[in-house]
Amino acid sequence: MALASALLGVACGLVGCIPPAVLFERALKARAHPSLVQGLASIAASFAALSVAVLAASAFLGKELLAFAIPMVVAFLAFWAVESVRVWRSANGRR
User: Fold this and answer.
1) What residue ranges do the domains of the chain occupy?
2) pLDDT of residue 88
């Protein structure tokens, strides 16, 4: 059961990345100019999705909440670490 909780946590962490990632990719394109309101809305949607996931996990998983929450946070942060390296390399002329 712990493995299933961990895999569910990874999936929820990656789903939480979707709203800001979509806006992030649009911002990288030269013709797109996302607004501050769109950025705040994407962060709010990500926060809400991750909060609902943790709330549901705490209701259904009980003692295995950490087996869910830790992989969720690790997946979320790993995704943004990869994205930041990709953008840094792109900004410095490397692909």
Assistant:
1) 2-91
2) 87
pLDDT score at 44: 96
pLDDT at 31 over 90: no
Quick check: 15 pLDDT over 70?
A: yes
Contact in structure between 39 and 23 (CB atoms under 8 Å): yes
Tokens linked to 78: 């790993």
Rg, Å, the chain Cα set: 16
Question: What are 66's two structure tokens?
Answer: 């950490």
Instruction: Find tokens 């692909």 and name the residue.
Output: 95
Distance CA 34, CA 23 (A): 7
Residue by residue, DSSP assigns the chain as: -HHHHHHHHHHHHHHHHHHHHHHHHHHHSTT----HHHHHHHHHHHHHHHHHHHHHHHHHTGGGHHHHHHHHHHHHHHHHHHHHHHHHHHHTT--
